[in-house]
Amino acid sequence: MKVNFNLKQTADAQRLTQLMMVMTVQKRRIRVYTRIRVTPSEWDKRNRRCILLSHLPLRRMQELQLYNQRLEWMEEQVFRLDYERAVKGFYLTQEDVRDVVRESPKAQAERFSPLSYLSLLVDSYANEINHRGTKGSAGSQTTYRVALKRLENFCREKNFLLTSFDEFDRLFFSEFTNYLYNHRFVRGGKQMQYSAITIINTLKVVKNLLHRAYDNEMTDNIYYNKVHTHTHCTATEKIYLQEEEIERIRQAEVTTAQERQVRDLFVIACYTALRISDLNQLGKAVINDKMIALYQVKTRERVQIPILKEISGLIVHYQLKGFPKLTENKANAIIKQLAERAGLVQMVSCRENRGGVVSVIQERKCDLVSFHTARRSCITNLFRRGYPVNYIMTLSGHRSLQALQRYIRASHEDMAQAFMNLLESDDAL
């Protein structure tokens, strides 16, 4: 027995047309409509499957992927029924085939692994068009993939089979949350636990994926709406570098060309507030002797950043030589080494939340330095210089004062002095 799926011919390439399942059983032709409708442009006649066209909206791509899964399932079910009938001395009937086809999409969906479908959503995230008309960033896709990996690890370690979306219930989320708070892993030779913000962000990603599955009619389970994704605990405090410390890193000894590039781009970030993803786009930016103009990778917002005198020489140098591209993990490891060479080894007290326990730890400052420290340092130092927050927001690309405030690591004295500077400037006017 051979099973085919055929699409009714039509002159309109964009007209939705129903697929038909066709097979021959004991010289009898069986034809049954599948209730799946696609356009001729979405159908591959040779492979008898839907084509996933990159220009299609995310939802339609997901529908076509699901259609292909349903077609494969229908084909498998028909062959299974045919074998069962043959063993008993009967032949497959048109009514048997019709019963297979008539099974509801939701019932069919339950036969697929929820984790497989969530993985499909993550894979297609980069092609999703959000409410601002832009696609999801590669960085966000990585965040989703890492969160999904934590979910998969939990299911494997705790023997949660997850055969149905209905299993995402109170018990599941309770067990999953406890797992995240208690899970231990080794990093840099030290035993670690997930931070509170990591746990919260993981739960947010899982909730978001389940919401998308609900929107795609894969499930009617909406328990995820009851899952809280906020915490009253104190998150890990972040450091910033004063301008004198930045200068010490600029003067730090380098032994390789890669170290020099990392050092130089870190200094540039300290006076531009650029993320590492944006630093990697400097080769495409519009740069003159006063300004850098580019679109931020994360937000797709256009920013114009004045070139301060502290980095003008570096900008000119790499304009001529070509801006290098950095790998975040490697660059962060190198900048920690350079910060240590620069003598930033003083112990810093930080509050952190790991495994739901808030504690005060002592760390060397150099071990806390990363490229995101540069962005935080730029914002804080500009604030300490007395620049108005609306100017700083224009430079950093922040859309709200609340978001900006999370980056400012100034003391109460700094805040008071900045306020005095603003008052004095008003008096001068």
Describe the structure.
Strands 1-2-3 form a three-stranded antiparallel β-sheet, with helices on one face. Strands 8-9-10 form a three-stranded antiparallel β-sheet. The chain is 48% helix and 15% strand. It folds into three domains: 3-103, no CATH class; 125-226, no CATH class; 243-428, hpI Integrase, Chain A. The termini are far apart. Helix 9 (257-270) packs parallel to helix 14 (371-385). With 429 residues, it is α+β, with helices and mostly antiparallel strands. The radius of gyration is 29 Å and the shape is elongated.
SSE map:
Blueprint: E1 3-7, E2 17-25, E3 28-38, E4 43-44, E5 49-50, H1 58-87, H2 94-102, H3 105-109, H4 114-123, H5 138-157, H6 170-182, E6 184-187, E7 190-193, H7 196-215, H8 243-250, H9 257-270, H10 276-279, E8 286-287, E9 291-295, E10 302-306, H11 312-321, H12 328-341, E11 347-354, E12 357-364, H13 365-368, H14 371-385, H15 389-396, H16 401-405, H17 412-428
Antiparallel strand pairs: 1-2, 2-3, 4-5, 6-7, 8-9, 9-10, 11-12
